[in-house]
Amino acid sequence: MAGEQLEVLFKVLAVLERLNIDYVIGGSFASSAHGFARATMDIDLLAAINREHANLLVSEIGPEFYADEQSIIRAINERRHFNIIHIDTGFKVDIFVAKPGGFDEKQLERRRLRVINDEPEQKAYVATAEDTILAKLKWYRLGNEVSDRQWQDVIGIIKIQGDRLDLSYLKQWANRLGVSNLLEKALAQGQGSKE
Question: Are the C-beta atoms of 94 and 81 separated by less than 8 Å?
Fold first, then answer.
């Protein structure tokens, strides 16, 4: 991730931390951290955000970002996502509102603090390799299984992580999320041709 993008990311994360909002970085950034790196123009966060946070978030994020309070409230009510956009760069942070219980809660519970930037050293919470695989398989299924990018992200994580993956956890949650067949196919493909 480019330095400018990291700077924007850490400004948003600083606000979430000041407001005591638990978050985890997912999406392409997490798959790049666990698999093969690829460029992205936005970053996905899962956050335990509620209505009381909406006004505070907008006021804390400051004038260099675009954040619409009504969109945030609507996303919180509907358990969907909203965007925060850095005005100068156009870099977008998508914040997905965590649903209580289930897989969202599990991702926040299992998140890991990782060094994201070396100089200066900056850390942030990133989804585990297993949770990144499961989330991407879920999105792949929701997108009618046509996104080559999502699929290649999953295969990349499997190839890089190999035996470090918790297969029992993966299979349990793949079953609960209705993506068991996709997981089996991905494991066969990813483990069958290690680069």
Answer: yes
